[in-house]
Write a structure and sequence with these properties.
Layout lengths: L1 H20 L4 H21 L6 H28 L3 H12 L5 H11 L4 H27 L6 H9 L2 H12 L6 H11 L2 H10 L11 H26 L5 H10 L5 H9 L4 H26 L1
């Protein structure tokens, strides 16, 4: 397990050191990931995948998990009587998990690349779609802005991984040459190191204790409480020894989502709170996700 975690730690450290002694290029790295690394991963996993009723069942289940998470987060935020902007930021970062950048990293490290497809389905058809629809409603409300339906629709339709998903489904009708698959594989492998390096660049020690109690509660809900509740439910309805069950629980346990933080910042929510939840969540995940993995073993 340590062999799987050490590269993640090294990537984070490299990102932090590069930002400290050179400059922060995390925005450019994330752009590269969104336009190249993620679409390549989508193509690589969706092209050979056979779509069945089971796939639709998984998508429905993953959506239920996220709305359940949102409901629990809402109850906590209501109890704390948070002001509007903090309330909305709290809901966004405690609900949407890093099921792509971080999720792919852990799933590939612990279970191999074959099981990344579950993380991919979770990310595209649950996390991302709910974030850019219902999540944008929350962000607009928190920032007291008018909801722009046209902008949301454009975000969904022209998001590169979504475009690649439909392209990959169409290309299933044809035999792809090996050089296309090999090139896709090479580009997809850049996702994990670039994502970790970009997140390492987001580290800011000077503001690390900003609203620390709220950030701690965010991480408790997102990375401990919800995955434990899901795991208890799975123990009754599914077999916890199945790899797909383990992968799903780990995906639920992921830290706050990078894209959610980006959209929260662009939308005018609490930037420092969102970034601290993201960065501290990634660091805490080294312990929490590894603990869930060992327990499930």
């Amino acid at each position: 397990m340590l062999n799987s975690l050490f590269p993640i730690i090294i990537y984070l450290l490299l990102g932090y050191l590069f930002k400290t002694y050179k400059k922060d290029i995390s925005k450019e790295l994330i752009e590269f990931i969104i336009y190249f690394s993620l679409p390549a991963m989508v193509f690589l996993k969706i092209y050979p995948l056979d779509f069945t009723f089971r796939t639709l069942e998984l998508i429905l289940m993953f959506n239920v998990f996220i709305f359940f998470n949102l409901f629990i987060s809402y109850l906590f935020a209501k109890f704390l009587k948070l002001e509007k902007k903090t309330f909305a930021t709290f809901l966004i970062v405690s609900t949407f998990g890093n099921t792509s950048f971080i999720g792919f990293t852990y799933i590939e490290a612990f279970y191999g690349q074959d099981y990344v497809v579950y993380a991919l389905i979770y990310d595209l058809f649950a996390s991302f779609l709910i974030l850019v629809s219902f999540g944008m409603v929350i962000i607009s409300w928190g920032a007291s802005k008018t909801l722009n339906i046209k902008s949301i629709s454009r975000t969904v339709l022209f998001f590169p991984p979504i475009i690649m998903f439909f392209l990959a489904v169409f290309l299933k009708l044809f035999e792809m040459p090996n050089f296309v698959l090999n090139a896709s594989d090479t580009i997809a492998q850049t996702l994990v190191p670039l994502a970790m390096i970009a997140i390492g660049m987001k580290l800011d020690i000077s503001n690390i204790f900003y609203k620390f109690k709220i950030v701690s509660l965010v991480l408790f809900i997102k990375m401990i409480l919800i995955p434990i509740l899901v795991m208890i439910g799975f123990s009754y309805f599914y077999n916890l020894s199945d790899i797909w069950s383990k992968v799903t629980i780990l995906e639920v346990a992921m830290p706050p989502m990078t894209m959610a933080v980006v959209l929260a910042i662009k939308g005018g929510l609490d930037e420092i709170l969102a970034i601290n939840a993201l960065v501290l969540g990634v660091i805490f995940s080294l312990l929490s996700v590894s603990s869930f993995y060992l327990f499930l073993q």
